[in-house]
Each structure stands twice: as C-alpha cells, then as structure tokens.
UniProtKB/TrEMBL annotation:
The keyword Nucleotide-binding does not apply. This is Zn(2)-C6 fungal-type domain-containing protein. The lineage of its organism: Eukaryota, Fungi, Dikarya, Ascomycota, Pezizomycotina. The keyword Cell membrane does not apply. SUPFAM superfamilies: Zn2/Cys6 DNA-binding domain. GO terms for biological process: DNA-templated transcription. Residues 135-153, 629-643 have a biased composition (Polar residues). InterPro entries: Amide_Lactam_Regulators, XnlR_reg_dom, Zn2-C6_fun-type_DNA-bd_sf, Zn2Cys6_DnaBD. It comes from Fusarium oxysporum f. sp. lycopersici (strain 4287 / CBS 123668 / FGSC 9935 / NRRL 34936) (Fusarium vascular wilt of tomato). Residues 1-26, 64-111, 134-159, 622-681 are annotated as: Disordered.
Amino acid sequence: MPTERRDTTAHAPTGNAQPAVSRRRTNGRACITCHQRKVRCDILEKGTPCSHCQIQNKPNCTIYEKKKTRSSRASNSRPSPVPLQPRHSSQQPQPQRHHHHHHQRQQPQCLTAPATPRATAALWPEVAVDPIARPSSSTSHYQHDSPSTMQDSAENEETYETRNLADFIGQDLPKVGEISRSERLYFIGTEFSNLNHLVRHRALRRDQKDVLHFGTRRLARKVPSVPEEALKLPPKALADELVTAYFAHVNPGFPIVDEDEFMTSYNGSDVPKLVSLPLLNAIFLVGAHVLSSTREDCRASTYTFFRRAKMLFDYRFEQHRETYLQVALLLTWQCDNLEDIVDNSWHWIGIGARTAFGMGMHRDARSSTLNTIDKRQWVRLWWCLFQFDVMVSASFGRPQAINLEESDTPMLDESHFQGIPHGNPTFAIEHTKLCIIFSTAMRRRVALRSTEADRAAATKEADEELAKFITQLPQSLQISHSNPDTWQATLHLSYHNFLILLHRPPPHQDPSRVSHHSATDHSICGDAVVAINSIFESLRARNTLCNLWLPSVHVLFTSLLHIANELNSPNPLIAAKSSRMFDSLIHTLRDISQYWIYAKSLLRLFEERAMWKKRQRGHVLGSSEDRTFQQSQESPTTRTGASEFSLRPDPLGVPSIMGDAPSTLQPSSAPVPGPAYEFNF
C-alpha cells in the first residue's frame, strides 16, 4: 500500500552554534507548497524553485518556517541563525546530560513495537518463529521524544489537520488526475451540505457537475502508540496457511479484499506497499475459523486474532478508511450474542455502513477521478455490506442500515471481479439479487403504518419475485446432486430461510382469523425445512460446516422453531417424521456449535427444553404404574405427604428438582432414547 514516510522530528530553526538534541531526524525542511501538500521537497539540495514548484509553475517557492513553540521560546537563547546548510553525516550530536537522563526516563512509556514487528511464537510456541511481511502502519520512525518535541509534534498534527478544509477548497477544483490509493478524499454529500454548495461554486467544468468524490491530500504518516501485543504476528508458515484458507473458502463469494493487490503486498518486498496490520489480523481470524474443523490450535486462536484486530481498529492504526469497512465485515466471523448490541455482527455491520456512507460508497463514482481499483472495490464492498445487512437485520429483527432508495451504486457484474482470480461472481450477483427481494419485502412487512392488506400484498409480490428468481437461477448454482458446494448451500439456505420467515404462521394465531392460505403457507414452510435439513446433512457428512458464515446458524434456528411445533401434531405420522427431522437438526446444531458461540446458546436452549419434556413425560407415565405398589408400602403419614407432592416439575426449577428431589425422581444416567415430543415453547 503506497505510503509516505512521516518525519516525526520538530522543525526547529537550525544554526551552527547550538548542537542538536540526541535524537534521530531526517531532512525536515520543505518549501511552503510542499509542506502543505505533505510531499518530499528537494529545496535544500536543488535550491529555489524546488522540483515540484518548477514542474507546476508555482511562484514564491520559499522555505516554510515553523512558528516557535512555547517550549522553544523558554529554552536558552541561541545565536542569530545563519543561512541553511544541508545536514552532513559527519555531524555528531553532543547530547547533554539532562537530555540523556530524560531520554532514559521516557523510554519505558513507549508502547509501540519496533519498526519491524517480528513474528512471535506466543500462540504456537512449538512452531519456529518466522517473520512475515511488515504491516503498513508500523514501519515508521520510532523514537522517544522529549516533552518539547512531543508538543511540537502535536502542534504539527493540529496544524496539519486544521488545514485540510482550507487546502481542499483552495486547490483547483475539480482536481486534475485520478485520486490515487495513497490519497484521502472528500465525499461532499447531498445538496443540503454546505460543503457541496461551496464546491459547486468552485467547480466550473460542466463534465464534473455530478462528481461527489474529490481527492484532497496524501495519507499522513500518523502512527499511534498501541500495546505491543497488538503488533505480534504468527509464524510465516501458519500465516500463509490462514491467508490461503481465507482466499480459498470465503473471499470468492464475499469479495471483501482485492486478492491480487493484497497478495502482491503480502508476498512482495516493496517497502512502500505494505500489508495493513488490522486487515491482516482480520483475515487470520476468518482463516482460523475455516480451518477450525481440523486444526484445534486454529480454533483456540480465533479470539486472539479478533482481539488484535479490534485493538488496532479502536486505536485507528490504519490510514486507509476502506480498511475499516473491510475489517468490520470480517470481524462478524467471531462474536455473536443475541442480547449484546455493542459487540456482535449487527454492531459491526452498523459501523461498516457508517464508514461506507462517509466515503460515499452508496453513490455512483464512475464520473469521478477515483482510481480504477477503488471503483471496482467500492462496488464489491457496498454489495457485500448490503447482503450482510439484510441477513443479520432479518435474524435479529432490527432495522436495516441500508436503504437502496438512497443509493445509485452500480449493480455487481463480472467486470467488478477483476483482482479476484478465484472469485465466484455468479454466486455474489445472484445472492445480492435474492437479498434485494427480501429486503424490499421485509421493509414493507414491518412498516409500522402498514395494514394487513399491505403485508399480504408485500408477501404476494415477494413470492412472485422469488419464484422467478429460483426458476432463472444459473445452472452452476442449482442443487442437482446430494453434495452441494459451499456457495450453492449458502444461496439455497438463504432462499429457504426467507420462505419460512415470509410464510410461517404467527404464534397463538386466533382460529377465527385463519387465512385460506394457511394450508399453502404450511406446505411451503414444511418443504423449506426439508430442503434446509438435507443441505445441512450433506455439509455435516463432509465436515464442511465451518465454511458457512454466521447466518447459517440463524437458518438452523428458524428450522428448529418450525419443526418443534410439528412435534405436537395429533397425527402420529407427522409427529414421527418431525421427530426424525428435529433430531437431525439438533445433531447439526451440536456440530456447528463448535464454531459459533451463538450456536452454543441455542444448543443449550433446545437440549434443556428437550430434557425437561422427556423427564416430565417419564415421570407422568411412571407414576400410574408405580402408584399401587407405592401406596401398599407407604404408611398413612407417608401416603399423605406423597399426595401433596406434584410429579410435574416446574420448568424454571429443573436444577433444584434434580438436586433436591427424592431418589425415586432422579433421572437415569443413561440417555433417554427417542425424540423430544411435545416440544412446546
């Protein structure tokens, strides 16, 4: 990733009589124009005008003089300055004693790792340490500054940041030339934005009247101090395995990362193009999740990678803003708790949506001067974000962050997959279309002011579009055999899940208000559960459940809830069929709970309910057989106490009953065979 080395030393006025403080510094002098643009200047070597000003015909090429700080004014008086001379390597600083002691006192406070963080064997101590590609934001100058230098640096940062708007408006608008990958940009927003209004007055070219994205400046070399643990990396061999797993099993269908660009940086030695450390840890996380079915060490390390990526995310370690969107999407592979709202997939997708809106990804950037790679990647990221938003919002029952009526981003096509050599554009395009259908229906169904007729019309329209979608599905995504691949399975799981959500009856439905479509709805839901169970059984048999993303757990939850109601059917044939289906789905839930904490919560819920129902049924059936024998053996006092004891356990008191009940009520240690009949929530 192209970056620019940042000079962290103070730009103090130089002289030949006062020795420099004992610290490392580079040529910090530049002309005013180069200083404002934050580009390297050769005014000391070439003289005036510098190369940049000469090429661009900039007048008044003079050296930028930084104003003196309070600390510099309070220091010892210096002789009058002499004309600037280039610094020679032969000059040796003569550190003063008080500076030396201060340097030693400041050193333990630095929390940033060395310039090249080495791979650590902390996660896998049995594997030899092998350093990998250096991160993009941790290869700058690291030094221990004095208080005056730190104050100078802070003032430089403040001056640099506060000049952004003035420099942007002061440049020739629109900027000539494409916006490179190493530049920041402004998204000027809608007509109600004052920035939009101001830019429209400045931009006079007619062919740019619809442009909303403008380049501003090069990325700053601002490197925050982060805990050293966040900069640790796994051994090279393991890192390669994790990266390969991610690009082989996840990125083809959800193209979040440009594979060609990333691998060029990851495998290359070009210093300006370095791997983003937050993104690298997020990729490690997803890769470890994919390998967790066969690698116990990978399963145990997922939280470590999540913690490092989140730490770097919170410290704003990366300068490329789109990286924060990529990391937010990838972090959804780790944590998901239904009752949590600040640390689950719904939360991370919300952060990603705000980042995308701030950059203007929801608007068509084809007329802008944005570089070609970003134009392709923005379209891919936007539609990945939209798919994630629809699926997670439906699973949590919360509002969607993205409204397509406010977006004119081009639809995905195969041209956007340049840079994704192993991509599956057919799946990405078709799954996006499927999410668009359900998103529209979901918004109309849950609208607070919609009537019953409006909801029925929304369902009918969605059925028509879903029928058209499934009949026109490309051959490569149709399930024509018993072993669907990951992307076929993901698409059909989403499709059948949407069918159940649209057609399942409401709880405690009033019999007098049963629709004439109830039988049809019941048939649609039943067929969908059968298809979902078949897909899960196939993936489970091939040990590939770990390749699925989080919504697969919610699909499983939807199916279990529907089939649990069928267990109470008065028809014994329906009940028997439902019980076999229920046991198979529970088996899948038990296997998939190894990879998702949310699945563990669901497994505990269903198993405890099933255990209580079986225990209740066993106690009720056994009581009638043993009552005669117990009454003949009991004394009158004991018989009176037994008549007051209820054999029906309280569902909220199962643990206490198991611990405090008489021995005759203790459940057998052997597992109770058969399904959990009468499974009723």
